[in-house]
Design goal:
single chain; 450 residues; mainly beta; Porin; 7 helices; globular
């Protein structure tokens, strides 16, 4: 009696229904900004430099010097294939030979389970492949802090010096990305901090980027929509990569106020010529928001070695001036980037004609900054930095230029959270038609990117 019961249990264990493990999905294909390539402004995080023309992103993120290591190619990215259902089903199912070793099958024995094995789960290969082709991501950046500002007006102005202090919200940006294979992409980002700022009639409120990207080949990609013009390396670097607050005096006057850079509606063709280690950009844009005319801008960037990158930009603008006449004006830029171990150097020269002033005189700006990353425990980085800038509102007139300097020691954690205590000094020369104010600014800015 006891032996019969034991034999029945052994038969039940040996011939019961097999359990099939869940199918394991192959990892979805993912491409970093450095691999995929990026537009002039990609709202990238500071984790990696992007290949064009900054670092997207510089990604990305982003300044661009990773062409030789990029995985971008005309072919689709390869991904591990999902094992077929047959191989998955056989993994947990005992063979017929093993079952027959226990005992012969007896239909009259109630101790044996004669039900058929559960069918393996079906894998919808077409749906799985489509999901791998279509990818999306959501990101955000917050930059806020506190500042104390001491104004030092020159005696000629008759103004009294004094302190001002306030909390500020530099950025509260949300960004959305959609990629369909490596051929098509949509980028959009909004700036929620505009709710606290005065309206800017030269910029679309809240919207920062809104464009489509079509990739025909590694050397031919098309951007359509609202995005940054390919002009000036400093302008094209994401705020998440800049080790200081704001891009400076010349950037504000030439690139933003006179619209030689910054964002506009247009179309741009760009691509990488890998054998020559060159990246080119050719674009046509609206000259300014709600303004008649046209912008033609081109940029070339050479990356002969990983540690150095050289760039040059030029533009032609037909725009309506301050008295309602259409004028033809131009702009030019030259820049470089050096990156050796923890040392990072950037220099940028910009020139642009001021079409709101009679005879369209040239404005000029020259800026350079350096930083050095010192690795600390717990994924912390100590980052001392220094910046010097000279800006001239009109090179044909003296005493309307200024010198700006910024000094600070940043603390970076996991490349995403930054604490930035800094001092900014602006020293104008002269007061006649000088757009800048003599002031000292002390601030602490916090930056978080996800």
């Amino acid at each position: 009696m006891i032996s019969t019961t034991i034999a029945g249990l052994l038969l039940a264990l040996g011939s019961g229904p097999a359990t099939t493990p869940d199918p394991v999905e192959a990892p979805a294909s993912s491409r970093s900004e450095a691999e995929e390539g990026s537009p002039p402004d990609e709202d990238r995080s500071s984790t990696e430099e992007a290949p064009s023309p900054t670092e997207e992103p510089e990604p990305t993120t982003s300044d661009p010097s990773t062409a030789e290591t990029s995985g971008d190619s005309p072919t689709e990215p390869s991904t591990p294939e999902t094992p077929p259902p047959e191989s998955l089903a056989g993994a947990g199912e005992p063979s017929s030979e093993l079952a027959s070793d226990h005992a012969p099958s007896d239909p009259a024995d109630p101790a044996q389970d004669h039900s058929s094995p559960a069918p393996p789960p079906q894998v919808d290969e077409a749906k799985d492949a489509k999901e791998k082709k279509l990818q999306w991501s959501l990101g955000a950046r917050l930059m806020t802090g506190w500042e104390a500002k001491y104004r030092r007006p020159l005696p000629e102005t008759g103004e009294a010096p004094g302190w001002e202090h306030e909390f500020f919200l530099q950025q509260a940006r949300v960004k959305f990305r959609i990629d369909y294979t490596k051929r098509f992409a949509i980028r959009a980002s909004v700036e929620l901090a505009d709710a606290l700022k005065s309206p800017d009639f030269d910029r679309v409120s809240y919207l920062r980027n809104g464009y489509a990207r079509i990739r025909f080949h590694d050397a031919a990609r098309l951007h359509l929509g609202y995005f940054k013009r390919p002009f000036s390396r400093l302008e094209l670097r994401s705020p998440g990569d800049l080790p200081f607050r704001g891009r400076g005096l010349a950037n504000g006057r030439i690139i933003e106020d006179r619209n030689y850079g910054d964002r506009s509606v247009g179309a741009m063709l760009w691509g990488r010529i890998r054998p020559a280690r060159l990246t080119y950009y050719l674009g046509t844009f609206a000259p300014a928001l709600r303004t008649q005319g046209v912008d033609l801008i081109g940029r070339v960037q050479a990356d002969p070695w990983k540690w150095i990158s050289l760039g040059a930009s030029g533009g032609f603008k037909r725009v309506v001036n301050g008295i309602g006449e259409s004028v033809n004006v131009g702009s030019a830029n030259a820049d470089f980037r050096v990156k050796i171990a923890g040392l990072y150097l950037l220099g940028d020269l910009v020139l642009g004609q001021d079409y709101l002033v009679p005879d369209e005189p040239w404005s000029l700006g020259l800026v350079g900054y350096a930083l050095y990353d010192v690795d600390l425990p717990k994924k912390l980085v100590l980052q001392p930095m220094a910046l010097v800038e000279w800006a001239d509102a009109n090179i044909e007139v003296s005493q309307n230029d200024a010198i700006r300097s910024v000094f600070g020691v940043n603390l970076v954690w996991r490349k995403r959270f930054r604490v930035m205590p800094q001092v900014e000094l602006v020293r104008p020369r002269g007061v006649i038609d000088n757009p800048w104010t003599n002031k000292d600014t002390y601030y602490v800015m916090l930056s978080l990117e996800i």
